[in-house]
Every structure is written in structure tokens, then in C-alpha cells.
Protein: Fibulin 7
Amino acid sequence: NCPESNKLLFHFHIFSKDGVFLQEIQGSLKQVQKLLSSHEASYMQSLRNLKKKINLLLSSAARQNTKAINSTCPKLESLINGRKLGKSHSIGHEVHFLCDPGYELVGSESRVCQESLTWSGQQPTCRDINECASSPCLNGGTCVDEVNQFSCVCAKGWAGVTCQTAAASTLPAATTGPYVRPSRCTIVQGTTHCTCEPGYTISGRDSYTCTDIDECELFHNGQAGRLCLHACVNTPGGYRCSCPAGYNVTRDGRSCKDIDECATRQNNCTKDQMCINTYGGFQCVRVDCPKIPNATYVKTSPMRCERNPCPVDNKACSQAPNSFSYHYLAVVSNLSAPRVMFRVSALRPIGDTLRFSLLGGRPVRRHFTVQRSDRLTGELMLASPVQGPATLEAEVEMSELERRVQLGKYITKVTMFVSQYEF
Ligand SMILES: *[C@@H]1O[C@H](CO)[C@@H](O)[C@H](O)[C@H]1NC(C)=O
Ligand SMILES: *[C@@H]1O[C@H](CO)[C@@H](O)[C@H](O)[C@H]1NC(C)=O
Ligand SMILES: *[C@@H]1O[C@H](CO)[C@@H](O)[C@H](O)[C@H]1NC(C)=O
Ligand SMILES: *[C@@H]1O[C@H](CO)[C@@H](O)[C@H](O)[C@H]1NC(C)=O
Ligand SMILES: *[C@@H]1O[C@H](CO)[C@@H](O)[C@H](O)[C@H]1NC(C)=O
Structure:
């Protein structure tokens, strides 16, 4: 079945045609045949060897391959209250573990990534060192272990960091409770260091008691301003600001912001009333047109009344104001003065003169004045600060004249709701 040997046989066949060396040729052929079978055997052997080698190579390559993908040990958990040193997780590398001060290591101090892709040893943990182990609290005191320190809860009649001294019989009444806390003390080489939580301070006489700092008292009218716009409430370890009803504490926790009851439906004004938001509250108002003999008024807008046309020759009617407008102002208490509170203007004057005046008696004149700011405008001025809570009303009359004859007059009623507070 070997094509090479067929060629050889054919070659010899040509020779045999001569018939002379037949016997010789037969011997030669037998030898060649032998040679060929031995060649064939060795050829097959080397083929088998080659196959084996290739298989070996293949399987070793496969092994190399898996190793390359997964030649690191699994990630190690990080250490709570400690640190892991060494980032490499590949075979042969070592990782070390250290605990924070106040903790001791339990488990393997270091771990090696092994050929099996597992870590040697055990995952360590950091255990709080028991500072109480040496029984540092004397005279029946109970030791409380804390991170890197301890504190003693002394038996009755004893005091001090390690309950080493007999307590004075006249301790302040409040030695416990939210405003008094035990201090945290550490003994380092025989020296005691005591500290307090934020908002507490070591009280004068003993270093083992922390008392609350009254921030409201301490920073009352301080240089940086008051802590709170309204009221300061001291709390254990801190303080908070509070606001009167009708206000919310602002985001920064120090100021007060008026709640708009009219916008938030927190008012009980009826349908025919208008809700006026004031500082710290609200007012329900209702505009009723005035009753004046011989003149009738109709509401032309929620805050305006206009006179109906007058019968001819009815002097009482034609001398009554042409209109009443109503305005409501909400202001804070003790508003600085003088200042303009309201302006009244004539839009389309028909006469040659406009006159502005303040109506009402003494109570009104104590707080208000009216002045002209330009030809068409009058101003209602607040003359002096008003302390709230108060409600003030002022009426400004604007008269229109032509050659000293009155053509019409217009009343503006301003109601000012002064809050109780200056905010
Ligand atoms: C190979 O790594 C994966 C994660 O990368 C892991 O889940 C798996 O156990 C590892 N296999 C071996 C044999 O280590
Ligand atoms: C004001 O505070 C009250 C609770 O005191 C709260 O219900 C309300 O939503 C607050 N209003 C605003 C505008 O923050
Ligand atoms: C509206 O509520 C106030 C309290 O917020 C109360 O004093 C007043 O009587 C109430 N008025 C009516 C009409 O219900
Ligand atoms: C008021 O009206 C009545 C009747 O309409 C009239 O008799 C009277 O004179 C009027 N008063 C004045 C002051 O004009
Ligand atoms: C009113 O404000 C002034 C400063 O603007 C202040 O000096 C005065 O004490 C305040 N009055 C009251 C009653 O708060």
C-alpha cells in the first residue's frame, strides 16, 4: 500500500525482461522487501512517537492556559479595625495584617498565595484589647472596656478615674442625667488624660465629670451675633433654635421664616373673605362698600368700590367720594422710619390740580404723614416705628380740582398689620 515500493517493483520488472539475472533479482527483491518492512515499522514507530509528543504538548499547553487565567488567589477580606499590607494576590506572594491601636490580631499574621491558588493560614480578625483585663478600677468599681481606653463606674462613695478617692459627701446634686456625663480617661505612663464628648466640658473641680456647655448662655449676644433669631434652647451636648407659632425654623437652623397660611390652606377664612398673610399669622378680611347718604356704591373688584352715577342736582351724592380702594400691608414690628408705605397716583387726571391729604384723627397722625412725590403721586409715609402686634389704618384722599372747583375725590384705605416680632 506504499506508493514508493510500487515504483521500485516496476523498476525491477523492466530488468526481468532480459531473463538473465532472474535468480539474482529474486534475492535482491527479497532483501528490498525486508528493508521496506523495517522502514515501514520504524516509520510507524516515529509517527506514533510524534503523535504522543503532540498530545503531551497539547495537554501541557492547556494546563498553562488555565494557569494563566487563574494564577491568583481569591481576594482576601479586608480587616475590620486593621489593615492589610500587600496587594499582589499571585502565587508566592505574601499578605500581612496589622491591627489598629487598641486591637490585637487573632489568626494568621501573614498569608501566602499557594500553588493550589489558596491562601495559607487563617483569615485573621482584630479584637478589641481588653483594657479592663488588669482590673484597673479600685474599691469595687466596675470597669467599662472601650476602644484603646477604659472607664470606671465607681461604687457609691468613691470617685476618680480609677475610683481611687473617697467621694466628697457634697457632690453636686446632678451627677448623672443628660447634662452631666462621665469623662473618658486614659492613663498613659502614669498620667491621666480626660476628655469630654463634644458639647461638654470638664467641670471646675473634678476631671472625671463632664458638664454640658450652655451654648445659649455662652454665646448670648456674642460678637458673632446671636445664635438664634428668636429663642435658643439648650440641649444635652448642643442647642437648637426655636421660633414662635406661625414661623418655621429656617434651613440653617438659626432663623425663623414666616409660614404663608394663605398659600398653604392653614387658614379658616370663609369664601367671601380674603386671606391676608401676615408675619406670624394671617387675617381674614372682607371688603364692604361704605354706606353714605344719597350715594350708592358697587364693588367693581374685590378691593374696590365705585359710586353709582348721581341723580342730577343731588349735591350730597356728587360730593361723596367717587371710589374707595382697599389695601392691606403686612409689616414686622419696629420697622425703621421714616419710610414710604404706599403710593397713590392719578392715572388720567382731568383737572388742573391734584391734592393729597391724610384723613383721620390723632392716632393716625402719630404714625403717618402724606406727602407729594411728583405732580401725580402722593406718598403715605410711616413717620415713626410701630411696636407690634398692632393694626393701623390710614386713609389717603386724593382730590381732583379745576380752577379750585372739586371734580372728584378718591379714597385709598390702607390697613397695616404689624406683627409681634421684628421678623
Ligand atoms: C478561578 O477564579 C475564579 C474567580 O476569579 C474563582 O471563582 C475560581 O474558584 C478560581 N478557580 C480556581 C481553580 O482557583
Ligand atoms: C413648617 O413646619 C411644619 C412643622 O412644624 C411643617 O409641617 C411644614 O411643612 C413647614 N412648612 C414649611 C414651608 O417648611
Ligand atoms: C379661625 O381660627 C382661629 C385660630 O387659628 C380662631 O381663633 C378663630 O376663631 C377661627 N375663626 C373662625 C371663623 O372659625
Ligand atoms: C338726598 O336725596 C334726597 C332724595 O333723593 C333729597 O331730597 C335730598 O335733598 C338729598 N340730600 C342732599 C344733601 O342733597
Ligand atoms: C427697635 O429697633 C431699634 C433699632 O432699629 C432698636 O434700637 C430698638 O431697641 C428696637 N425697639 C424695640 C422695642 O425692640
Remarks:
- Residues 22-69 form the longest helix (48 residues).
- Residues 5-17, 169-174 have pLDDT under 50 and may be disordered.
- Helices lie at 3-16, 22-69, 215-218, 315-319, 362-367.
